[in-house]
Structures are given as structure tokens and as C-alpha cells.
Amino acid sequence: TSELLQKICMRNLVRKYCQGVTPERKVQLQQKVVASAVFRGKKEGYAQSINQPFLDTRLKVNDINPKVLQLIQGENIKYVTPVIKYDRNGFKARERLLVLTQSSAYVVEMAKLKQKIDYATLKGISTSNLSDGIVVIHVPEDNKQKGDVILQCEHVFETVTKLCMLANKQSLVKVVQGSLRFRIGSGKEGTMVFTVGKEPQVFKDKNGQLTVV
């Protein structure tokens, strides 16, 4: 009888908890479950991020240039965050916005759309096992795409989680060690090397590789 009462009590407690969860809290928990599946035991800094709630967005729609809003009119904007984008040739750092809608990811420069990636064509998302915020969005080899997108995000766990959930491609996220290959365009590839040092930095080394410390 005692064992049966314990089970009934536990079921009742779980039921009361579930009924009391707000829609906002439910979304937060769903995102944290996905983040755990992707990063737990794989990327440095994940444990410290667990108790930090994910924000709905880092920038409001009003912070986006009206010309950009016109270009993506009709798409429901879900998440916006400032990022640093590295050129595929030369690896020059440029300030950009990453705008995630219901169906696509956009890399935005002020009033210009620099690149659009439809979730249906997304080939993969890569990040390192270290504490850097580098994210590589892998795109298909076609004339519509210039090449893979190399970004640096301040809130990497949040950004990657929202991207893979919106794209419904959680299984395509890879946490790599040492290095990764990315497509530059026209059949060419580049290499990114991850290493540990005293100060965080991203630079082009003497071998022409993008090195992330």
C-alpha cells in the first residue's frame, strides 16, 4: 500500500507541476532540453550556461533597418542577434546581424541582405568543443550560395539551439575538436583550426588558415 501511495503521490505532483507550467516556461524548457542534447559533455562552458535563461531575441524587430524588414516581408522573425562574420577569403571580421525567421536564416549588413539560407537546404551547423563562440553554417554547393557562413556569437548556446530548432535539424549540429573544413565557394575549401591560449583571438595564420584561440 505504501509503494502504491508513493507512486500515486508522485504522479499527482508531476501532474500539478505540468499544469502549472506557463507557455513561456514550456518553451524555455524545450530549448534547454535541445541544448543539453547538443552540447552536454561536448563543449566547454555549457555547464555554466545551464542556469542562464535563453532570451526570446537579443534585438527587437524595431532595431532592424526598415529596408531589411521590407525585403523579408511576410516572414515571421523569431530571433535576432549581433554577430561577427568572417570573410571566406582573407577572414576579415565584419559586424553583422543574424536574423532567424520561421523558414530562413539571414546575414544582414545594415540595410542589405548579404546572404539567405533556407532551412530546407541547410547542410549542417558546426562549432568547436572549446569556449569560443564560433559557429559555421554549412550551405549546399550551388550558384545561389557564396559558401559556408563563419560567425562568432556571444551567446553561442542560445543561437545554435534556436537555429537548429527552427530548422528542425538538431541532428546536423556537430561539435568538433581540433579543426574543421568549410566551403569557400567554386569547389574550394578552407580550414579552421581551434587551439588554446592565454587570450581569445581569431586571426589568419601564416599557412592561410583561420585560427581560433
Automatic annotation (TrEMBL):
Cellular component aspect of the GO annotation: myosin complex
Organism superkingdom: Eukaryota
Pfam families with a match to the protein in the record: Myosin_TH1
InterPro entries per UniProt: Myosin_TH1
Domain TH1 stretches: 43-213
Molecular function GO labels: cytoskeletal motor activity
Descriptive protein name: MYO1H protein
Organism listed in the record: Serilophus lunatus (silver-breasted broadbill)
